[in-house]
Amino acid sequence: MTVNADDTKVLSDTARKYLRLHLVPKLGPVRMRNLLERFGTPGAVLGASRAELARVPRISDKIADAIFRSRESESVEEEIERAREAGVRIICQQDADYPPLLWQMYDPPICLYVRGTLRPTDAVAVSIVGTRRNSHYGAEQAVRFGELLAQAGFTIVSGLARGIDGYAHQGALRAGGRTVAVLGNGLASIYPPEHASLADDIAKAGALVSEYPMTISPTPENFPRRNRIIVGLSLGVLVVEAGKRSGALITARLAHEMNREVFAIPGRIDYPDWSAGTNAIIRDGQAKLVTCLDDILDELDAVGRIMGRDLEAENGQKNADSKESSSNAGTMDEPARSVLEAIRKGAELADDICAVTGLPSGTVSTALTSLQLKGLVKRLSGNRFACRKSR
């Protein structure tokens, strides 16, 4: 089949192979990981026989047959055309702009559909989540912290849902900052529909993101999977208003499982429908109580210190030398020094850096983000890292 030259604007040659597998029903990220561990590349997976595929853990005869038949399927070309018409790019795990924090997940998305742009600086992100049926106070706080964090240089990640999500995105936009919305449906449509205009603004100041094929409708089972991406894209999650059974509490639990920071804004004790969940996770030590921006910056260690210094410099509270010092290797903490030294000695993958330094993955991730912000390290394709050459 002839490949349209314009397809390169929608996806890379490698992403096309990933997409072909992504569209196989019931395959999913975990089975995909098993296949790549066995065959190495998506091309090799597509070239395997039914019998070879069926010998891979969790690959049934039915899924093996679907993978084998996908090699001749027209669905990939149809999906590319739908993406092109909607102004959407499709990126895969091997593309340079695939978000590096997602690699830390147990089940990273095989492909991401992106309307707008993703930048390396979006790795310095905080998610804001909460109830769909918020109070006036909750709306104020979501806008407030979306604005404060965006002003400090963080990308704001949320789910474009009614309520707290929408207000968090609005706060980031009001500050002129970046924001990313993760949808629980395909990007051929916007849900909820009343957020179509907000979605357009987000695409101009960040990105709309989904792992779902273009025409997939929003269904209840999609949103827990959507929430794991919201967490995966972030250094921490801020919960603003959540009742006892709020989906935001599921997101907070996912954040703990992914070794992300969890924050919560306290609510009124006489309005349990809005505040029982947030107050409970604060009470039980599952979230840090937040009343101001510094509460978040303090908990994010090196990244928080850098963002705080940059914010102070922008506000005229420090002289021009402050910003220069934040990119100077002499201001690094010990974990960042260890990580930089490991990369200089040839460690490229995050797992290798963890092995060389003896540091936990969360500490290594924070150090890598700090080093990239300082301009000392660059991320390569395949979630590899290398030192930048001195000018």
Query: Number of helix segments?
Result: 18
Gross morphology: globular
CATH architecture of the domain at 120-299: 3-Layer(aba) Sandwich
Find the structural class using helix and strand composition. Answer: alpha/beta
Low-confidence stretches: 317-330
Computed CA radius of gyration, to the nearest angstrom: 21 Å
| The CATH topology of the domain at 120-299 | Rossmann fold
> Termini, distance in Å?
46 Å
The count of β-strands is 11
Helical fraction: 40-55%
Please give the CATH class of the domain at 120-299: Alpha Beta
SSE order in H/E notation? Answer: HHHHHHEEEHEHEHEHEHEHEHHHHHHEE
Brief sketch in words of this structure:
With 391 residues, the protein is α/β, with parallel strands linked by helices. It is built from 18 helices and 11 strands. A hairpin with a 3-residue loop joins strand 10 and strand 11 (384-387).
Q: How are the SSEs placed, and which strands pair?
A:
Layout: H1 13-22, H2 28-39, H3 42-47, H4 50-54, H5 61-70, H6 75-85, E1 89-92, E2 111-116, E3 125-130, H7 136-151, E4 155-158, H8 164-174, E5 179-182, H9 196-204, E6 206-210, H10 222-232, E7 236-240, H11 247-257, E8 261-265, H12 272-283, E9 288-289, H13 293-299, H14 301-314, H15 320-326, H16 334-344, H17 350-357, H18 361-373, E10 377-380, E11 384-387
